[in-house]
Amino acid sequence: MTVTDRPASYREVFAEPTFRALFVSRTVAIAAVSLQIFALSVLVYAGTGSPLLSALAFGAGFLPQFVGGLLLGSLTDRLRARPLIVAGYLLEVALAAALALLNLPVAVSLSLVAAVACFTPVFAGAASRVIAERLTGDAYVLGRSLTSMSSSAAQLLGLAGGGVAVATLGPRQALLFAAACHAIAAVIVQLALPPEQKKHEKTVQKGTLNESWTGATTMLANPTIRRLLLAQWLPSAFVAGAEALLIAYGARRGFPAGTGALLMAAPAVGMFTGNLIVGRFLRPSQRERYTGAFVVLLGAPLILLITGPPLAVVTVLLTLTGFGFAYGLGLQREFLESAPEGRTGQLFALLSTGLMALQGLGPLVLGALAEITSPSLAIATAGLLTVLITPLVRRSKT
């Protein structure tokens, strides 16, 4: 085993104070966002009785990120990271507080959520840029693994906590609690993230919009970057679409009431486990060698659901699907190496943009397919499409 092929340890990653600060603050913020989304959906449904508007409240923060990532992404490399990230969390504080304290029309509430979501890729890209600068080699890859694991755990905690908070406090008080969590995240970053030694502001002739658009289109025109982005965007979109159909799948199969939560939790458990095992125990070269196999593992279990297995087998298959998300660890070194000079933050913002936008579209497209066919066939289609994109994960020879 060469030195460069030695897997990093969690101790090495957490020894970096900047990573610790961003890891903790991001985990708190993701849980807060999940709680906020749930509480707002409940609040909208209670006020309107409309399932459609409640669903729109749940997804209002996804698609607008596409616009923000394309038109504002250059800010991640032009501005200092600490004030930018803190400003992002404070903006979330203001949003959650406004939703809780003001009796806003539904259209205004959703518009505010969409407006704030436009800036999300900028703040996320800045944090990712800082992590990429502070962690090197396999420590960076393991840091990305830890970030994915914490995201899964925080989303589950936020949704579960959201249910408890709404039931005990009510949706408006739950939104205030989410605002407090965002404020805590902002304080953590302000106090624990060290100031940057140099400014990342670039002297450019173009404005932010033109600079962001030019950078995004230039990166998308690069075959390697485009392949790596699609390799991370598309599987997430397909699996998100499949997960959105699990409640309908369970109902059609006649599973007991309440198993929908079990089915939706299984992929998250698998994702957490996969990132833990693959990130900690496989060498970097092994992760990259088996990336294609993990993509197949991500999609193949979804195909098998069409055969109508019993509930216990369905749960195992969905857990295996989540485990397959570990394929992303094998792409991280090449992805970071592909970043153009001075645009690392914007590349991460573009990654976040596509992930959020396509995860919003995936459920719509596969939901429409399920309407005209069946949930099991739509889920199997998502699995097949995932398997078919395996060639995208092959590392470039040049």
List the helices and strands and how they pair.
Layout: H1 10-14, H2 17-48, H3 51-59, H4 64-72, H5 75-78, H6 81-101, H7 106-117, H8 120-134, H9 138-169, H10 171-192, H11 208-221, H12 223-243, H13 246-253, H14 259-281, H15 284-289, H16 291-304, H17 311-323, H18 332-337, H19 344-372, H20 375-388
Protein described:
- With 398 residues, the protein is mainly α.
- 78% of the residues lie in helices and 0% in strands.
- Helix 2 (17-48) runs antiparallel to helix 3 and helix 14 (259-281) packs parallel to helix 17 (311-323).
- It is globular, with a radius of gyration of 21 Å.
Any guess at the CATH architecture of the largest domain? Up-down Bundle
CATH superfamily of the largest domain: MFS general substrate transporter like domains
Task: Spell out the helices and strands N to C.
Answer: HHHHHHHHHHHHHHHHHHHH
Note the total helix count.
20
Mean pLDDT over the residues: 84
> What fraction strand?
under 5%
Structural class: mainly alpha
When the domains are counted, the total is 2
Query: How many β-strand stretches?
Result: 0
Shape: globular
Find the CATH topology of the largest domain. Growth Hormone, Chain: A
- Kindly report the oligomeric state of this protein: single chain
CATH C-level class of the largest domain is Mainly Alpha
Computed CA radius of gyration, to the nearest angstrom? 21 Å
